[in-house]
What we know:
By secondary structure, this protein is of the alpha/beta class. The chain has 8 helices and 15 strands.
Amino acid sequence: MESKPKILILFKISKLNELVEITNKYCSKFKNEIDFFYLYCDESISNNIEITSNIIKFKIKEDNWSSLLIKVIKAFEIFKDKSYTNIMVSNISTFLNIPILLKKIDKNDECLSHQGINYCFHNHYYNFPSGAGYIFNMKLVNNICKFFSKNQFIEYNKLSNYFINNYPTTDDIFFGYFIYIYLNNINIKELDRINLIKDNIEFNNYNILNIRKASHIRIKPPDSNNLVKYVLLLYNILYNE
């Protein structure tokens, strides 16, 4: 019998806040099926990388752009030789429907995601995996790590000038470019996603049914103060708590 995928989830965070506590609670329900860590920039730490419990701190300035790519690459380096079959990278504000995700992940699929819009960089048009949540198998993770290591594109916890001048500098847009240029445009297998981008959303029977079927739910309310409210509502809907 073929073994099940072993999944690692990496959450990109900019703050240690209530969202992290809630995410800990629901991810811990699946601790026998997934591992999960938070990627956090903290310029005050003594070392380049410090790991405490399931929080990985990087001595990087958070800018919500290139810092995302740097900490994801550094996290890939930490886990590339571990016994995982797939790594998922997600925003902390994306609610993951873990039972659905586990059914959809196949370790032979190199990339799964809700695709981003058609994007142009250096006269190349391509799609990219959405930064709200993408899943790579370990073959792709290792290819990315080799690309950065071989070319020394991260120096002193910063992207090199050559990289900045020649490649997209945030994670999802870069990965789309890498897939298109260096991997002959491998297929990004589509993951169904629901976007909650309005305040005062009514969770009627239709919405709840679709939410229960979705792999991940991106939460982006106009009023960011409502983010925790929606996460808790989704937690109650999916886990009855």
